[in-house]
Amino acid sequence: EALGPFPNYSTYLHAKWLWKTESGTISAAANQELIDSVYSDKNFHPADVAGMCFSTLRTKVAEYQPSLFLESDSWKESAVEIAVPLGVQKGDDLFPASAKLHVPGLQHRSIVDVVKRVLTTDPNVCQYHFHPFRQFSNSSSATGPTQRVVDDIFNSDAMIKEYESLRRSPKEQNCSFERVVLALQFWSDATQLANFGSAKLWPVYMYFGNQPKWARARSDMHSCHDIAHIPSLPESFQDFVCHQRGYPADSQLKTHCRQELFHGVWRILLDRKFIRAYKHGIVIAFPDGSIRRVYLRIITYSADYPEKVIIATIRNLGVCLCPRCLIRRHEIRKLGLRVDTKLRLKSRRVDNDNRRQLVQKARKFIYQDRKGVGSNWVEALLGNMSLTPTENAFSGRLHELGFDFFSMLCSDFMHEFELGEWKALLIHLIRMLNALGGDKTSQLNERFRRVPPFGRDTIRKIIYNVSELKQLAARAFEDILQCAIPAFEGLFPEAIDTKIQELLFVIGDWHSLAKLRLHTDSTISQLETATQVLGQQLRHFEVHVAMETPQEKAARLRRGAPKASTALNASMSNGDGVQSGPKEKAYSLDRYKLHALGDYPSQIRLFGSLDVISTQMGEARHRQKKRQYARTNKRNFEKQIATQTQIAENIRYIESRVNLALGLLPKEPPEPVMVAEEGRVPLGSLEARYWISEESRAPVNLSELLRRQAEDPAFRHFRVQFLDHVLARLRGVPYSWDDPVASSKEYSSVELEKDRIYAHGTAQFNYTTYDIRRAQDTIKPGLRFTGRGNMVEPRNSIRSTIMLSADETDGTPSPPDWVRLDMLWIRWFGADPDERTGLKAKRLERIGYVPNGEEPGAFGFIDPADVIRACHLCPAFDQGTRQDLLHGSKSVAFDMAADDAGEDFELYYAMRFVDRDMAMRHRGGGMGHIGSAQCSEREAYSEGEDDGDSEMSEDQSERSDVDDTEPSLGIVSTFGIDAEVEEEDDEDVSDVNDDLEENLAEVPTKYK
Predict the structure, then answer these.
(1) Dmax over Cα atoms in the chain, in whole Å?
(2) pLDDT for 571-607, tens place per residue?
(3) What is the DSSP string of 933-974?
(4) What are phi and psi for residue 318, nearest 5 degrees?
(5) Of the candidates 196, 384, 208, 408, the residue with the CA atom closest to the CA atom of residue 311
């Protein structure tokens, strides 16, 4: 009975392996899984599989209905009907004002049926939070404030508001079941399925915000549910328009029809069952035996900007280009100013009667009066607010139920910042380096390649030329940002190098704050201040005009080449009107993606941390679709991908039933077990401070080691410091890095078993992150001790840490009771006394090696238990190298050891923005950093950072005075921006212009 459509257990095993392997080719790992999970099963019998028709079985599994009491959530294929306006008649041709076009190929399934299936069959439902809550953090001090903490949808304002509204509404008649809110999160984005060809899929994904975000982000939790595959306009669209009216469609008409098609799809998805579930709820029996009435609520819709404007039915890059407010393009540069905050609040978009009436009037002009989609008639109605003449499906279906579709359009950190603003800034910095000439870009590329990696994938090794920016993903731009300060330092003239270093620090600090996975009231307030400082820095940077890069020039000439009418014109101008030399490129602030950064603090309060609403999860889901596409025959692949998705879901359900029947499901969830990255070596208890292998595979004779390294200054005080550290540890007294705790006579009391120490190649350190989660850093030594040859060999690293263990005794005459001691042999750093660091100075912490002299101090030993976590050190390339830190031309401890003379970097930067936890340790206030030694004092930017404007904290205190009522959206209205704000706006702009003129006087002529 548990096997469902499978005739026997052996067929089930083989089919499960076959259909759950998503790749188009069988990899070595998949082949090994076949051996382990199928052939090695004692109940597998090949005879049961022989003669089985898997094509027929595949159809049965796809159509399998898990429960008789549930409606089928299988995929359906429908056609979407849209009205195509035909416009004005030309000549004697007579044709109607519009024509109906049926777009086939919509693969979809009922949202309500998917909800029922998941809530009744998914074992992960026990982790869902159906009762949203507010969580708070009590300060460690008695007088400290209590702070609100937000990190997920179920403790955000949006879901709490929906839940409280539901609790205040009257109950359904004769229903005593508990009422809960199911938070729906939608993602949609078109993706290219193959490297060659035009195969494209436009899927719609649905997640449940009640599920914790750590589970939603894991592919093995199967928390993403496919809802539809949106079709594109058919290739025969132009033929259809020409057949109807005699001439083809222009770009404006095609854009309008794409919007009509998108909202036609959503009218099908928001069917009567969904409206009823939204209004009256659906009664569901949960796996835990409880029965609840579940009300569906759309909380977020994540998409990139081109798709967001389709959802919001606004014009792409119009006058008012934001889908959430009516701020105009020229006002975007006021990011961080108080007037900008007021404008966002007063001019936010609202789905009210005025908006819908304007759209209906415009549609009457187009569909009845034959006006063009881009005609002056339509422009006069909709141009002021950048609306489009498309009836919004969300408004038409859900407006009467109190739903405002503008509120669900959330920020997209990946596309708006990492692939948006940071990429634009990076490109302009590279343009400026090209304008300087020489080998500046080559130096930049070399520096980035010399940046050491950090962690398993936190900072990856940069092997590409950063200045070329060829096909880089968002994670690559993030790595470049986190390492940009030392790479760009000193490449620009001194007059502007300091300002660029400050800008890179501010944007790195803003990035680390915005990307926190757990926010408190203080971190959100700090993000608002950081946004204010970032806006100021970008307004100062805007004056730098540079020349386009060689890659941009080549691309421009390729675009202009088809315009060349003759060979002569092509040789003289490389195209009609195409400039052959490099063109000037200005850094513009009039971009939507820059404007979106100012919404992040309010978006975090509304929805939780930004990783909850980022499109990154939807982009990750696209990888599955591309693997499924490889298993199709490339014809009608949308339906085949939908079938594969249905089969995978049914097999997961059958697998859980089979495991339950076989008694393989654990009664209690297993304890988490950590394994090494390679999956073989256990990392020990999570309660331990650190882990170093107990195996002793690399014994080193201490006396022989010191004899062979006698000429190396790094080993000059090795034995004394080693024995002193051992005595301090055995006696339980604090050890020092430069002052000995024992006398030379006491060292003879230490006996080393066989005079051996043992070197280890890896150590792991457990720590608690700022968001109260367990994490682990792995470090590897910069040197390697061996029992042969030179005994000490440099590795490909610029660190000088050695993990050692030794068996010691205190030298008493009784039989030795050996004690193992783990220790790290390190090279000490000291802070640069000449450098001001921190948020006020906008500088990274800079450190350098302690010089080695006659007295010990440059090297030392520490207890691994005293290590908090690993940090990322990057050389200060502009400061150069030196050879005098170690007295002696040869030492294995040099950063760059050589046969003739080694070199050390003069200084290093402590990369505070390498990850979120490190940034919070420097900034202070991390929730998980309760120990005083785990973070520095709380930092803040200096007062008066903004351009003639008040501090952001003052603006927060005035929010209660801002008119928060619904703005008027009439044709002649000013969209709620009153005269008082406009006057303040002019004053702010004049202040900004004054600052820009002062800054311009310091800029070299190359950038003007």
Answers:
(1) 119
(2) 544 444 556 778 888 999 999 999 999 999 999 999 9
(3) GGS-----PPS--SSS---HHHHHHTGGGS--SPPP--TT--
(4) -80, -165
(5) 408
